Amino acid sequence: MEPKSLQLSNLVNMESPEAVFNEVKTIALMMFPTFDIPLLEHVFENFLRLFKGQYPGYRACDTTYHDLKHTTDTFLAMMRIIHGADITDQTFSQHNLMLGLISALFHDAGYILRDDEIGPGARYTQIHIKRSIAFVDGYLVSEGFTREDADFCRNVLDCTGLDVNIGAMAFVSQENELLGKMLGTADLLGQMADRTYLEKLPFLYDEFHIAGIKGLGSELDFFKNTIGFVAMTRRRFQDDLGGVNRYMRPHFQVRWGIDEDLYMRAIDNSLAYLEQILQTRPDNCRRCLRRAGVLRHLERIRG
Predict the structure, then answer these.
(1) CA distance 224 to 282
(2) Looking at per-residue confidence, does 118 or 94 come out higher?
(3) What DSSP line would sit under 103-155, residue for residue?
């Protein structure tokens, strides 16, 4: 298969958490042959339990955009960026790599409700990062990590906030800052490069509506505003997040023999299609977004 015919979604079955974990494990062992895979497996199992409602004291995730798959998409994107940096011009300790991956797995834990909370989880959209940090703090303590480790992860998680001033943050080390920028990048790349990103935009619209975010307009407005959002993220990658998305290409070169950043290709393809359907079917964008039955699922939920 020629590189130009390859798509990001063809490399790993992104619908399978186990397949994603196996790919992350493979890359981690490429970096560190002695990496603590049993610990990573343990954390990943806890992440799955949390999102499925099997973690003590918590309900299952009920957000349809910021769901389990969004987190596994971010988890793999994070690992790929780290690997690309490692083979290019950066070094990481095994311990800090573990903390970065833990941060990726629980970066949206703030959407998940405790047993004593009233849903839906999307109502916490505007404070979900603070809630995620609180969860990770407690989780790390329960797992025997140090206070310093919790501080490290707090900074990494804070970098996923679109309104955070990363330049004003007090990072504990250069690695801490780098991993924070990597998670902020992976969070965006993971969702926008999803092959069903456009189909899931109404899910995100619903979450924002539940959260009471002002200025949403109609669902059609939301589709139109996505073009501006993608442009904003491109600027954010460079201006605020240190351009760490540049490390995707060396990862794909070494891991797959592909001399291209497949994340940006996927995003460019989705954006081009969105612009096309806004021109040709602005009256009903949904008719052109039928991948994987995603919107049929949303329509069933809405009744």
Answers:
(1) 9
(2) 94
(3) HHHTTTGGGSPBTTS-S-GGGGGGGHHHHHHHHHHHHHHHTT--HHHHHHHHH
Helix axes 174-192, 262-280, angle to 10 degrees: 40
- In the block, tokens 């992350």 appear at 24
Name 232's Cβ contacts closer than 8 Å, sequence gap at least 6: none
Q: Is 6 a member of any domain?
A: no
In a domain, 106, yes or no: yes
Amino acid at 174: Q
ω before 120 within 30° of 0 (cis)? yes
Cα of first residue to Cα of last residue in the chain, in angstroms, is 43
Contact assessment for residue 129 and residue 67, using Cβ atoms and an 8 Å cutoff:
no
pLDDT at 294 over 80: no
* Alpha-carbon distance values, 128 to 10, 113, 122, 157, 189 (Å): 32, 11, 9, 11, 19
CB 171 within 8 A of CB 155: yes
**The dihedral formed by the CA atoms of 5, 8, 11 and 13, expressed in degrees to the nearest 10:** -130
**Distances in whole angstroms, Cα of residue 46 to Cα of each of 50, 90, 152, 158:** 6, 30, 20, 22
CATH number of the domain enclosing 139: 1.10.1300.10
Is 3 a domain residue?
no
Span 128-138, pLDDT tens digits? 999 999 999 99
Confirm whether 112 is domain-assigned: yes
For the chain, the domain total comes to: 1
CA distances from 161 to 179, 275, 299 (A): 14, 27, 30
**Cα–Cα dist 185/6, whole Å:** 22
Residue 171 belongs to domain spanning: 13-302
